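User: Hello! I'm new to structural biology and keep hearing that structure can be predicted from sequence alone. Could you demonstrate with Nitroreductase family protein? Please show me the input and the output so I can see what each looks like.

Assistant: Of course. The first part below is the input, the amino acid sequence of Nitroreductase family protein. The second part is the output, the predicted structure written as tokens.
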Amino acid sequence: MFNHIHNNDFTSIVKGRRSVRNYDGNVKISKEELNEMIAEASLAPSSANMQPWRVVVVDTTEGKEKLRPLVRFNTLQNDTSSAMLIIFGDTQSYLNAEEIYNTAVEQGKMPAEVRDSQLNTILSMYPTLPQEIKVEVAKIDSSLFAMQFMLVARAHGYDTNPMAGFEVDQVAKAFDLDEERYAPVMMISIGKAKADGYESVRLSSDKITFWR
């Protein structure tokens, strides 16, 4: 997908993204295409390439019924979207470190000595970090994935809405995830807009940038 996107195309994707709350309920995105979008979004950067984002895709009637009481004032997105993605940060993502780095060596993307050095650092440091630091790192990295997913979705011709308004203390347990390990980050609804989202105003770059 990204190999065919030129600068002008990417600019139009960024400028064309809207937060859409009302979707065409007749549009269903296939599992295959959702998997493709998640894979493309997973090209996002992360600390030590630990890729801590984890995604629960809620696209069944039963799943949405379970999610509905947990989304507070975001029921329209839940009811009309093709799917709701619940993004979590895995605070034990370092458990995949050996697989990630061994694969990098096997594919010729990293020398074995660099892998050994990196793994030694990761496996001696990450498990000993305080839980609040693990959560913070996982949330920051997973937010990079979430933003990238929304742009990928736009490139595929779909609309999205990021949401923080949900029961963060209940959603992991509701979908059978370990509450201590997986930190809720945000939800993203995805589908085809039934009603266009409003174009919003942004502060100018000189209002948000400090040159030194």
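User: So the tokens describe the shape?

Assistant: Right, they're a compact way of writing down the 3D structure. Reading them back into a model, for example: The first strand starts at residue 53 and ends at 58.
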